[in-house]
Design goal:
Largest sheet of chain A: 8 strands, parallel, barrel
Shape of chain A: globular
Order of helices and strands of chain A: EEHEHEHHEHHEHEHEHHEHEHEHH
CATH superfamily of chain A: Aldolase class I
Number of helices of chain A: 14
Distance between the termini of chain A: 48 Å
CATH class of chain A: Alpha Beta
Oligomer: homodimer
Largest interface: A-B, 58 and 58 residues
CATH architecture of chain A: Alpha-Beta Barrel
Strand content of chain A: 15-25%
Strand order of the largest sheet of chain A: 4-5-6-7-8-9-10-11
Number of strands of chain A: 11
Number of domains of chain A: 1
CATH topology of chain A: TIM Barrel
Radius of gyration of chain A: 19 Å
Chain lengths: 330, 330
Amino acid sequence: MTHHPHTIDSRRVYATMVLSDDEDEHIYAKYLRSPCNPSGTIALAMRQRQYGQEENNSMLTFSSRVAEAIDAKNSLLCVGLDPDIQRIPAHLRAHPDAVYRFCHDIIAATHDLVAAFKPNIAFFEALGAGGVEVLARVMALSPSTLWILDAKRGDIGNTAAAYATAAFDYLKADAITLNPYLGGDSLEPFLSRAERGSFLLCRTSNPGSTDLQELVLADGRPLYMAVAQLAQQQWNSNSNVGLVVGATQPAALIDVRATCPDLPILLPGVGAQGGDLATAVNAGVDRHGRGLLVNVSRSVLYAANDHSFADAARAEALRTRDAINAARQA
Amino acid sequence: MTHHPHTIDSRRVYATMVLSDDEDEHIYAKYLRSPCNPSGTIALAMRQRQYGQEENNSMLTFSSRVAEAIDAKNSLLCVGLDPDIQRIPAHLRAHPDAVYRFCHDIIAATHDLVAAFKPNIAFFEALGAGGVEVLARVMALSPSTLWILDAKRGDIGNTAAAYATAAFDYLKADAITLNPYLGGDSLEPFLSRAERGSFLLCRTSNPGSTDLQELVLADGRPLYMAVAQLAQQQWNSNSNVGLVVGATQPAALIDVRATCPDLPILLPGVGAQGGDLATAVNAGVDRHGRGLLVNVSRSVLYAANDHSFADAARAEALRTRDAINAARQA
């Protein structure tokens, strides 16, 4: 093991991680040539963000960090990391660190194409003891992307503070998804962290979302629009609130974007869930053609289930990124 | 280490756990005399529920298990385990397994007084690597109580299934708290487990709960009553749905109980949050004077912050249990 620490920019310090000697080595080397790593022989850089005491002195709001990440990659793509042990390639499944290795290879194959990764903590918790530690190691990879922890948390006062500690201080997430049903005080421990983002569930992409989210209020709004308006008018004083709006509901997306012109929107529901990509991208981007992170998970992760899975994931990510960019330039 | 496996009843297998030799030994011995443990020298029994393939062949619904737990202890008390490392006694804080030891001592001191324990997973996740494993060891204690995992989860299809695996199969929770904002399909992987319970957030006890939960719908109902009616009419086909209704809102509690006469209600907000106990108990019990679990957390956990903390916790739990029983018999 050798380590080559580099300083890439003023906010982040990278240290390198050395390859294991096994059959998948070529995958890493293939995609990792970069100005800092011209030989392409070093695996993914470890991420050591300098989040800490200086965090709240930074002038960089989360919404500007989203814009920066999108512009740096010219990509609205977000890859959701939902590693289902039943679906990862058989040759990895027997490995004692199978989920980490699967995520590592997906990240190595796609990180230059994406603005963000979005690991869903449920799939790591389901591993039992050590699962969250696997997630922490995964989230230490790829310093050049945003990391959105998909946790859909929502709890009161001191408990919300504990979740914020877990997400922002232990896992060092750049952003988290939150469930707004408990109201503003449940969001406060997250929203008070100005450089970190909170994507609030607004109109989700699943069939059951109509049960509550589309209930019509006395003033004629559907419930999800009340969430959008609270986000816009009351909860965004630190410019770090975003919304989750599913691609399967383009009309909802149009209404939310009209009410919240500048809020970042996280858009699930394209790919395996079947929402139309071009329609959703046009409805979801802000006036600058960004402000939107288009999440795909299964269509990339499980593009192939043999030794070619990382190549197939890259091909699918590339195809999706380009389709998104074609739609936003149309 | 010696192990003495016993068979206590047909559904559960206990194995014993041996005391560590340290200054707190007397605490365990004091409260653990029982028919199975007449000397009181054995610490808390380990819980090895026989949940597994036979689970769905059982005729025991979750609502009947709540009634059974309440009757067995003649108690509606639920103690919430929210172990804040900043608030646990100083003499435990330096211990490498401080949170486990704190929870163990609270459980040992109170388990004969309570129908349920309710650990909040956030406080364990906040410990970082190994935190969930600490929770698993805590939840393996006290086989005679229900274990409600306070996680307030809510996610879609395959992710909800992963959370159900983590809660019910890894942590072996008897019940979980869920956030209903994503609708029926997000609840299904939990509700399909007939012997396990799901307490849905309905009207919570925090100030911000009014932001969404009290929004008035076009038909005149507040949003939380829509949750109560969906729970009663659509989601309870396995008799395993309960609701979370805060003690700080007695009027809401009366309305929910009227709409849902048989659903178990989990009632936070007495104790440190200040809701009136007798009023809430009378509003919340079902026609049989049960169907209600009254949660207290901080008032019991932090009744004292020195070596007497377990004694003080027991005294506070006893006082609360008796006050609840006085109210339900009045």
